[in-house]
Each structure stands twice: as structure tokens, then as C-alpha cells.
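Troubleshooting entry. The earlier prediction with magnesium ion gave an output that would not parse, so I re-checked the input for stray whitespace and re-submitted. Clean input:
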Amino acid sequence: MRSIAIINQKGGVGKTTTAVNLSAALADAGKRVCVIDLDPQAHASLHLGLVVSDDDLSVYDVMTGETPLAKVRRQVAESLWLIPAHLNLAAAETDLAERVRRESILRDKLAVDETQFDFLLIDCPPSLGLLTLNALVAVNEVFLPMQPHFLALHGLSKLLQTIEAVSQRLNPELQLSGIVFCMYETGTRLAEEVSGDVRAFFAAPQSADSPWENVKAFKTRVRRNIRLAEAPSFGQSIFQYAHNSHGAEDYQQLAREVLAQSYINPNVPVVHVA
Ligand SMILES: Nc1ncnc2c1ncn2[C@@H]1O[C@H](COP(=O)(O)OP(=O)(O)O)[C@@H](O)[C@H]1O
Ligand SMILES: [Mg+2]
């Protein structure tokens, strides 16, 4: 299974849109996909058509109690499952403040979960707090959605330091494996310049144990497309809402790139056959 956290501590960069529509595209391609909504705003849950009521179990109960993932998981489309969030998740960080191993809760829950998936995608909140930390400890890969405007690189070093610290102390498998340009303004010089800068930044030689040594800035650029902004309020993925749109085209193309990408486990030596 490939497990991917969608992370950027900035809000509004395309995390949820990418988590939902990439998952839907992978599921359409026949992969078994599970989405975990780890953002108290519960946007991914709404986008996937699920409204979690106050009485329903959600990811909050998984994170703070004995509830197993299987008890919360719901099928939302063919080949697509969701661990939904509720606003109460906002209290999790304080509720867990005193707990030992509080950064490994999600990993421990996943370790005892018996259902098999091809992909696990985690939609993270716009912060680098305990919930995001739990995602980073639980997954092997990070995808970083970015909006190519002039502040795109601002705050990146903090994010990279966090990934590096987690990979050194808590999760040696962790790698930043993908950059996704979202809300791309085709034909503007700014978008081209910034995405060029980001590619150059990550193309610079890294030490062999750097968690972003194998990062790929995906060729697919998700164009700004109003259909992508409309789809969440209908509780539908872009493929259900507007399957002929640029948004659908771009996320399908992104899924093809993700499927073609081979995940390289840093802890398994690559054997080169002569
Ligand atoms: N490619 C796009 N074109 C147009 N609107 C988009 C696109 N991607 C995201 N949006 C909209 O921008 C807003 C922020 O995106 P979202 O995915 O929720 O970001 P985040 O999860 O990082 O906060 C949402 O209203 C979303 O519908
Ligand atoms: Mg979001």
C-alpha cells in the first residue's frame, strides 16, 4: 500500500481538492483507496458527500478513544472509502496533550487495521500541529500541493524541517515524494517562474538520506477551474460533478503520473542488476 499525507501548513492551496479528486481518480482506475479526513473543518468529508452528525463516530473517536478505524470507515463510491471528520476534531490536540506516544496514535491504529487498500491518502489541516504530525508518522510519503504565486516558497523551510525531523526521529520511511501545482494560471509568467523556481529548488543535489531526495514535481499542473471550486458544495468529486472539465482532465492526468511513479523505500537498498 502507498500511504500519502497531503500537507501544506498554508490554507487554501489545494490540499483537500487534491486529496478528494486524486483519490476519486485512483478509485476510478480500479485501485482500492481510503481517504482519512484529518482536518477539523471536515471539508474532505463534505466534498465526498458525507455529513457527519454530532452522534456519528468519526476520526476524533479513533484518535482519542478505543474506536478502531473499521468502525468509522464508510464506503463513499466504488473502490473508495472515507474515515470522516467532524468539527469536534478541533479538540483532539488539547485532549491528547498529556498522552504518551500521542504522535503515533494513527500509526498504531493503522497497524491493527486488517482491511487492505492500494492507497491511503490523508487530508491534513493547515498547520504543523499534532494531527499533521500523526499523519507524518503514519505514512511513507508526503505530497505537497502548492499554488505558484510569489509566496509559494515562503514557509517551505519550516515544512521541510518538520519532515526531516520526523524522518530522523519517528518515521525513517518518510519521504517527500510529490509536488503538485494547484490553481495554476496557464500562460502567466508568474506561474511559470515560480514553478520553475520550485523545480530548481528541489532539483538541487540533496544528501543521499534527505527525505526529499526522490521528490518529483509532477508534470501535471492542476489549472484553475471553477468546476473544481463548485464540486464540493454538491458533495461530489470532479468526475461526478463535471467529468468533461479541465479539472477532471487534470486530476485524471495527475493520477496517471502517480500510478506511474514507483515508490522507492529508502530503507530497502536498490539492487542494480547488470
Ligand atoms: N484548481 C482549482 N481551481 C479553482 N478552484 C480551486 C482549485 N483547487 C482548489 N480550489 C478551491 O480553492 C479553495 C481552497 O482549496 P482547498 O483544496 O480547500 O485548499 P486547502 O485544503 O489547502 O485549504 C477551495 O474553495 C477549492 O474549491
Ligand atoms: Mg483543506
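This one parsed fine. Residues 189-203 form the longest helix (15 residues).
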